[in-house]
Amino acid sequence: MCGIAGFSLSADSKINSRQLSNALLTAIEDRGSMASGFAFHHDGKHGYHSSATPGSSLSLKFMPRKARTVILHTRLATHGSVTDNRNNHPVTSPDLNIALVHNGVIYNHEDVRRVIPTKLPPVDTSVIPAIIERQGIQSIDQLDGDAAIAWLDQRDPHMLHLARYQHSPLTMAHLEDGSFVFASTESLLWRALIQLDLAPTWMYNANELEYFTIRNGVMLSKENLPAPKYTDVRYNYNYYRHQTSGAKEGYKYDSTPEYIPGFGWTDSWDDDDWAEFYDWQAYNEAESCPVSTLYPNPKNSSYWTMIREEADGARADYLYYNEDERDLWRDELFILATEPNVTLIDYGLVTDSGELVSTLNDDADIF
User: Fold this and answer.
1) Residue 123: closest CA among 165, 73, 164, 171
2) pTM for the complete prediction?
3) Are residues 177 and 325 in the same domain?
4) FRET pair for 217, CA 20 to 30 Å: which of 113, 179, 187, 314?
5) Do 212 and 284 sit in the same domain of this protein?
6) Is 242 contained in some domain?
7) Per the domain annotation, does 89 fall within a domain?
């Protein structure tokens, strides 16, 4: 899960860009606090900055005070460590023309990398600006993934590009002075606007496969994007969708097709899916136990985490991770260890025979 936001100010706007940026970053921090960043267009200049710091404390001194076009991001990492700043958003295209922010997951990013001649950073997002730069936005159908994206292209100054591809939420609004502003969810956008006493005259929750261009606060175009060409049963889509949809307290989902204030878009969730992927053998608290006592069978997994949520009392939950999800496992250990309502009980490795081995007090170099 991540948060995206930004704005395109009208020619006559008196809005303070840094104040608006801070309000938006603070609001969307609910959707991720492991890293944050921004990109801007101003007077023919194009720049971007990111850091492994929460959005509310991100330094904005690199942003011109009167920047007219800005995109913002707060990150909950799924692919690529936040300690490597290339993975933090905005993520750039190979020729550095495009700076892009993304909420979602590109499931087939490893396959897409093979057709891109330039080596890209580990973050799955990196394939999006690479595809757009080489082939244009209509080629996004090569990607199997969830995405709400915003980007700036220095070849087209002051143009804001905005799209909702699949699943990930996106809300936009016009203000009384003619400026355009957007954020991941309606509730988070309202939070930022209320803080600055800004009143929207129009608000819209984007549909899937919609692409918009905005300049000087004016929406110039709205187009339909092609649906994904490929989907693959190998991917556990719902595993990530609790992150791309929800906010910091993202366990509070139901199947109601609406925005829940503070928690994001819920139209793709189903109670049975939640139980299948996250309610794994709740009462087993052994540090090491045979696979036959667990459900589902973790023999295809390599890492595991055991947690207890405050709301569930004595119940413990197991989370399993595949070999290629090692970075995700490490990042989520960090997140779970700092969640106020979650107790991190144990974590470790899954042996070839399916046994769970605790490494909580192990000196082994597993990180």
Assistant:
1) 73
2) 0.68
3) no
4) 187
5) no
6) no
7) yes
Which of 188, 203, 224 is the last residue in one of the domains? 224
Count of Cβ atoms closer than 10 Å to residue 203 Cβ: 15
Q: Is the dihedral of CA 248, 251, 254, 255 positive or negative?
A: positive
Residue of 344 and 40 predicted with greater confidence: 40
Q: Token pair for residue 188?
A: 């988070």
pLDDT tens readout for residues 46-77: 999 999 999 999 999 999 989 999 999 999 88
Paired strand residues for 318: 306
Shared domain for 205 and 326, answered yes or no, is: no
What's the residue count for the chain?
A: 367
> Does the pLDDT at position 294 exceed 50?
no
CA dihedral 41, 43, 44, 49 (to 10 degrees): -40
CATH assignment of the domain containing 93:
3.60.20.10
CB-based contacts of 194, cutoff 8 Å, min separation 6:
none
- Say if residue 185 is in the same domain as residue 315: no
Distance from the first to the final alpha carbon of the chain: 22
Whole-number pLDDT of residue 36: 96
| Region at 258 (left for phi over 0; alpha for psi -120 to 50; beta for the rest) | beta
pLDDT digit string (tens) for 196-232? 999 999 999 999 999 999 999 999 999 999 998 887 7
Q: How far apart are CA 2 and CA 179, in angstroms?
A: 24
Q: Is residue 43 part of a domain?
A: yes
Provide the 10 A C-beta neighbour count for residue 70.
27
Q: Are residues 66 and 178 in the same domain?
A: yes
In a domain, 264, yes or no: no
Asked which of 224, 240, 258 is the last residue of a domain, the reply is 224
pLDDT tens figures, 92-109: 999 999 999 999 999 999
Tokens of 210: 């919609």
Structural domain span for residue 113: 2-224
Contact 70, 58 (CB under 8 A): no
Tokens of 136: 């244009």
Centroid of chain to Cα 167? 12
Helix (H) or strand (E) holding 347: strand 342-350
The number of domains in the chain is 2
**Is 183 strand, coil or helix?**
strand
